[in-house]
Amino acid sequence: MWEWIAQETQYCIFAYNLGRTYSALKNRKLPLETTYVDIRNATDGWSAIRDMVVRGAPAIAIAAALSLAVEVSNLEAFEGTSDDAVSFLNKKLEYLVSSRPTAVNLSDAAMKLKEVISNAAATASEAQSIFQAYIEAAEIMLRDDVACNKAIGSYGASFLCHQLKNSKSLSILTHCNTGSLATAGYGTALGVIRAVHAEGLLERAYCTETRPFNQGSRLTAFELVHDNIPATLVADSAAAALMREGRVDAVIVGADRVAANGDTANKIGTYSLALCAMNHNIPFYVAAPLTSVDLSLSSGQEIVIEERSQKELTHTRGGLGEQVAASGVSVWNPAFDVTPANLISGIITEKGLVTKMNSDAFKIKDFVEKVSK
Ligand code: MRU
């Protein structure tokens, strides 16, 4: 499994060895150090997600699933019944979901894993069989994510290349990090950029710094340089000027939770980029797997936005470095914002592009029903 992931994504995000050992690449140390944290159980997984050692909506879902897989794989002895195994796994999953609230991929993964557990319990009389079913399901999630991202990349690239500019290469602005480091590999919005580049049609990728945690300057810039993709880093506050100079053909971002009408929660600053793009007549796309869609929410107003520590804003290096803000100032540090559907030109998924059909909102439920037939 380790070799498979390393081969697919150039650098290994999850070094997972069939339930025996599991380490995650420390996002907080990049780009200066490539080091791993050992994750032995759900408690380690919870902390890695909460402290943003692993971050990005798809990555945190997989990180959580694998942390529990490795815990049950390495259980010395489990004396309980199959019912005890079910309640053990379900409680751990609920605990893992509590690590970060906004990305729906985590709760979606937990819900699907609970279904696997319940189905296994219907036929198994021993706890071990339920644990085994859980481990296999978690491993499938890890494997499926890369394939899903490649499908997003391929749909996104063919759509952009045909619809936007037939004759010219594209310059694309992206925000935060949505690449191999935010998924099991390849990425969503950054996956589309990778695919456009692979087609020979990318002029340049612009990545925002993404204050206050700097996922853009630390992680997206790292991935773009690693893959030799022509790239320019800009301060978040330079994006409007860049658009006004005519240097951006499209904006593509990821998503943490997409409501049924297409309103999209993503890294703080996404909403400002969408407003700027609208003002400059630049198409603004969201690239996300269908696991990022929350059909239970009719609009983005219902999305819970995570607020993070003041220190991430007042100190450098995500709160670990030196103080840069005046002591005593009050701080508001939301990790995400919601971009309303009317500012979004299309949503690129692994099943194709969701469009609005001359309306202000998307009908994602209809799309999901159509593609699941
Ligand atoms: O706080 P983070 O770094 O987890 O936020 C990440 C983002 O907002 C990403 O754009 C989103 O999760 C999509 S990752 C494919």
UniProtKB/TrEMBL annotation:
GO BP term, pick one: L-methionine salvage from methylthioadenosine
Recorded coiled-coil stretches: none
Recorded GO CC terms: cytoplasm; nucleus
InterPro entries from the UniProt entry: IF-2B-related (IPR000649), IF-M1Pi (IPR005251), IF_2B-like_C (IPR042529), Initiation_fac_2B_a/b/d (IPR011559), M1Pi_N (IPR027363), NagB/RpiA_transferase-like (IPR037171)
Record: active site: 256
Residue numbers marked as site, Transition state stabilizer: 176
Keywords tagged on the record: Amino-acid biosynthesis, Cytoplasm, Isomerase, Methionine biosynthesis, Nucleus
Catalysed transformations (reactions): 5-(methylsulfanyl)-alpha-D-ribose 1-phosphate = 5-(methylsulfanyl)-D-ribulose 1-phosphate
One Pfam short name: IF-2B
Recorded metabolic or biological pathway in which this protein acts: Amino-acid biosynthesis; L-methionine biosynthesis via salvage pathway; L-methionine from S-methyl-5-thio-alpha-D-ribose 1-phosphate: step 1/6
E.C. numbers: 5.3.1.23
Task of the protein: Catalyzes the interconversion of methylthioribose-1-phosphate (MTR-1-P) into methylthioribulose-1-phosphate (MTRu-1-P).
Record-linked HAMAP family: Salvage_MtnA
PANTHER family, alphabetized: METHYLTHIORIBOSE-1-PHOSPHATE ISOMERASE
Name the UniProt record assigns to this protein: Methylthioribose-1-phosphate isomerase
Lineage: Eukaryota, Viridiplantae, Streptophyta, Embryophyta, Tracheophyta
